[in-house]
Amino acid sequence: MSDAAPECTCRVYCAGPLFNRSERLEMTAIADALCATGFEVFLPHRDGMEFRLVHEVLVDRGWPAATAARFLHGAIFALDVYQLAIECDGVVWNLNGRTPDEGAVSEAAIAWTLGKPLVAYRDDIRTLVAGRVNPLLVGLVEFETVEEIAAIPAALQGQLTRRPPRRYRASELPDRLQSAAQDGRRLWEAMRVADAYHDNDRIADVVADLFAPAARDRFRQPAS
Description:
Elements: E1 11-15, H1 21-36, E2 40-42, H2 44-48, H3 51-60, H4 65-87, E3 90-94, H5 102-113, E4 118-121, H6 135-138, H7 152-162, H8 175-193, H9 200-211
Parallel strand pairs: 1-2, 1-3, 3-4
């Protein structure tokens, strides 16, 4: 494997399970391997928001738990769609798990549909279909997976060489994807202005301002 930096500065979406400490450590290791070889990354739980922590802040402020969960889920969906469809040039997909992470499957499918370079990492021997990974999953990566984290950057660089990255404008996306990406862009830009990274109180401020029920209609404007 070559550890040379990518030929261009490419931003990579890291898709995979993030629901316990070992999963987050594995996803962080994948992101670190990419960064060490010159890629930029978006790692959702580190660079976006973590549902549990922001939800706790919203509930402490008096939001009913179910209401807060509903609009916070909408915010997370919009932010991740924006990063995936607009900001990122390629996707690394962690397929580990007896059942692959449902959110990551959705993200991989969006990436495949948009023609984004997509690399799947998997060193888990558990499968669900006759000793093989479901063909509707591995078909998205042409039935090839990477078995070592250290090999991911070179595999992705190969994909980027074969499929030069394309950045989309929101207006180029299908209607529903466009709407989600536009909401996600507003959230991302507001988080940057508020310097809200890793500050769950500030993230909660931004999410409530943009996604709480009373705020939704204010920001429904045509995508640019």
